[in-house]
Amino acid sequence: MNETTADATDAATAAVRRWAEAAPDAVLLDGFHALKHALRFGARVHLAVASDKDAVLALAADLADDLVGELAGRLVEIPARTLRELVPRVHPTGVAALAAAPGRQEQLDALARLPRRSPVVVLDNPRNLGNVGAVVRLAAGFGATGVVTTGDLDPWHPNAVRAGAGLHYATAVARLPVDGLPPGPLYALDPEGEDIRSLALPDDALLAFGSERHGISPELRARADRLVALPMRPQVSSYNLATSVAMALFHWGGPAAP
Ligand SMILES: C[S@@+](CC[C@H](N)C(=O)[O-])C[C@H]1O[C@@H](n2cnc3c(N)ncnc32)[C@H](O)[C@@H]1O
């Protein structure tokens, strides 16, 4: 074994050991984009590994030149085989990282704080982690206060974080019971509601969306101040959950123009 190979093997072994120590409560950032966003939005990254560090730095130079220096200092190169042992489905960019989960109380405080300058998106018992991640990404992009899910899915599940491209760190994300939702007028999105174009969505609104299978639950419907419909041609039953969130946030207004 030459010196370079030995160094790489030592670094890999050390990385794996630190990974195992950090793992129990850490968030898995799967892929370059998740790591990029997490770093930009202040995540405390315990460990970042790549199977080809030079390739990742080249990607950063292309897509995120603000992070090239930080990534050069942080990324530990490990053999592709070791990365496959650490991550169930290695991202095409060959990058993975572990970051500290934000404190739950901090997230709840951010969601409950008034006056609120942008809506909270509520996903009522979502079934698809890809949709949850896509909605977190929308909430981050639109500058929404946060995303609350009800039901049994964990919105911080690695598949949701992957679909959210690491933007869970750019907004507040928490799971809560329906009777523990943050304060604010509750606008439930449902095809039976009044046309969204006839009303303005206030900044302090909770914008609630139903599950992919069953729509808005009776419990949430009973709590809603307004039922609101997105325009849709007759005979089309519904839109996809994440696209519905996109339309509603766009109708609310989004971040101030630069
Ligand atoms: C895939 S849809 C749910 C379809 C479900 N089978 C149902 O019966 O409502 C997921 C969620 O997206 C929102 N949504 C979809 N299309 C909508 C529309 N035209 N108007 C308002 N909300 C809509 C609703 O919140 C809905 O519960």
From TrEMBL:
**CDD domains from the UniProt entry:** SpoU-like_rRNA-MTase
Q: Does the keyword NADP apply?
A: no
For molecular function, the Gene Ontology terms on record are:
methyltransferase activity
Q: Which Gene3D superfamilies match?
A: 3.40.1280.10
Q: Name one Pfam family in it.
A: SpoU_methylase
Q: Which GO terms describe its biological process?
A: methylation
Limits of the RNA 2-O ribose methyltransferase substrate binding domain: 28-105
Keywords, sorted A to Z: Methyltransferase, Transferase
Q: Which family does the record assign?
A: Belongs to the class IV-like SAM-binding methyltransferase superfamily. RNA methyltransferase TrmH family.
What's the protein name?
TrmH family RNA methyltransferase
Question: Could you tell me which species this protein originates from?
Answer: Streptomyces gamaensis
**Upper lineage ranks?**
Bacteria, Bacillati, Actinomycetota, Actinomycetes, Kitasatosporales
